[in-house]
Design goal:
single chain, mainly alpha, two-stranded antiparallel ribbon
Length: 367
C-alpha cells in the first residue's frame, strides 16, 4: 500500500467533479458529435490522466507512478470492447445520434460508482485472501480463450436483465421523446426507450467489470492506484467512442492483442499469488515490465491492423446504423438524418410506426 496524502485524494475528486460538470455544460444542448469535437475531448481526457499521473510520480513515488500508468493504459485498452458494445446497443435501439452523448454520460456516472464498489471489494478480498488471485487468473484465462476462439456470446441488448427488469418496473413506450427519459401518457408516467438504453449500457459495464477488476488488481492492490486509473480511463470512453465508432472494424488485430494482454496479466496473477501463498522464491512480474508488454502489444496490434487490412477495407469503415458518423463528412447530412431514427424496438418486438417530422419537438407533457 502506498502512502497517499489526503490532499491528493481531494485533488482527484475535485478534478473528476469539475471535469464532469464542464463536460455536461458543454453538451447541455443535444447535438451530433463529430470527429473533430470528439478528438479534442479525447485530448482533454488523456491530458488530465497524464497530468495526474505525473502528480502521482512526484508525490507518491516512482513505483506508484508506474503502477498508475500501467493500470490506466490496461483499462484504456480493455475499454475498446466497450466501444463495440456501445455501437451494438445504439444500433439495436436506433438511438438518435444527437442523444447518444447524454446516454453515455449517465453510463459513465454509473460506471464510476459501480466500478468503485467492485474495486473496493476486490482490494479488501485480495488483502485478506491472496489465494483469490488464482480465481482472478482463471477468469482472465477464460476470457482469453473466448477472444481467441471468437466465441459469439449472442449479446442481445433488449433481453439483458437490466432492460427486462426496467420494463417490469415501469412501462416503456415505443417512441423517443427528444432527450427525455420519462413522459406522461394518459395521466401516467412512462419511460422512453432512452431509459432502456441507459439500463443496457450499465448492464454491459457490469459484465466488463468481470475482466477489468481482476486485471487491474494484478497491477496493484492499492485502492488509490486502481480506482484513479480506472476513473480516468472511464472518463475518456465517450470521446473515444465518438472518435473511433466508424473505425472499430479496421483494428481487427486489436482483439488478438487484448487476448495476449489478458493472458500475460493472468500469468502475472498466478506468479503473484504463488509468491504470496506458496513460496517467496517464486518470482513476480515487475510493474515496468507489465507496462512495456502492454505498450508493445497494443502498438503491434494497431500497426498490423493498418498494414494488413481486411479484404474490402480500402477506406474508412461505415459506422453502424444510428451509431453516428465519426467524421466531419456527416456535417452535410440533413437535420433529420443527424438525429437518426426516433423509434426504438417495441416491447412487443414489433417496430412501431414513426414520422420523422415528429422528432423536431418533444411532446409538451415530456418531463
Amino acid at each position: 500500500m502506498h502512502d497517499v496524502p489526503l490532499w491528493l485524494w481531494t485533488v482527484f475528486v475535485v478534478t473528476v467533479l469539475v471535469s464532469l460538470t464542464v463536460d455536461l455544460l458543454a453538451h447541455r444542448r443535444a447535438h451530433v458529435i463529430h470527429f473533430r469535437e470528439a478528438a479534442a475531448w479525447s485530448v482533454v481526457w488523456v491530458g488530465l490522466a497524464v497530468v495526474f499521473g505525473v502528480a502521482v510520480f512526484l508525490v507518491v513515488g516512482t513505483t506508484a507512478g508506474v503502477e498508475y500508468t500501467t493500470a490506466w493504459l490496461l483499462e484504456k485498452s480493455l475499454s475498446v470492447d466497450n466501444l463495440f458494445v456501445f455501437a451494438l446497443i445504439f444500433g439495436y435501439f436506433k438511438v438518435p445520434r444527437a442523444y447518444q452523448h447524454r446516454v453515455l454520460f449517465l453510463g459513465v456516472l454509473g460506471a464510476l460508482i459501480f466500478r468503485g464498489l467492485f474495486l473496493a471489494a476486490g482490494v479488501a478480498v485480495v488483502s485478506r485472501f491472496s489465494a483469490v488471485l488464482f480465481v482472478f487468473a482463471a477468469i482472465l484465462l477464460y476470457s482469453t480463450y473466448k477472444i481467441l476462439k471468437e466465441e459469439d456470446d449472442s449479446f442481445d441488448p433488449g433481453r439483458s436483465i437490466a432492460v427486462r427488469l426496467l420494463r417490469k418496473i415501469v412501462p416503456v413506450r415505443d417512441e423517443y421523446a427528444g432527450a427525455h427519459f420519462f413522459v406522461k401518457e394518459a395521466g401516467r408516467r412512462v419511460a422512453t426507450p432512452l431509459l432502456a438504453v441507459v439500463a443496457a449500457i450499465e448492464a454491459a459495464d457490469l459484465v466488463f467489470a468481470v475482466d477489468s477488476v481482476p486485471a487491474v488488481l494484478a497491477v496493484s492492490s492499492d485502492a488509490f492506484i486502481v480506482y484513479t486509473s480506472n476513473a480516468f480511463a472511464i472518463l475518456g470512453l465517450r470521446a473515444l467512442y465518438f472518435m473511433l465508432a466508424g473505425l472499430l472494424d479496421r483494428f481487427h488485430y486489436l482483439s488478438k492483442g487484448l487476448a495476449l494482454i489478458l493472458a500475460f496479466i493472468a500469468v502475472k496473477l498466478v506468479l503473484q499469488a504463488s509468491h504470496k501463498t506458496i513460496s517467496t522464491a517464486v518470482p513476480e512480474v515487475p510493474s515496468p515490465l507489465s507496462l512495456a508488454v502492454i505498450v508493445i502489444v497494443l502498438a503491434v496490434s494497431v500497426a498490423l491492423s493498418m498494414l494488413r487490412p481486411l479484404p474490402g477495407q480500402t477506406g474508412p469503415t461505415a459506422p453502424p446504423h444510428a451509431a453516428g458518423s465519426t467524421g466531419d463528412e456527416a456535417a452535410g447530412a440533413t437535420e433529420s438524418e443527424a438525429a437518426g431514427s426516433t423509434s426504438g424496438p417495441s416491447p412487443s418486438g414489433q417496430a412501431p410506426p414513426a414520422d420523422p417530422r415528429d422528432r423536431a419537438e418533444p411532446p409538451p407533457d415530456a418531463r
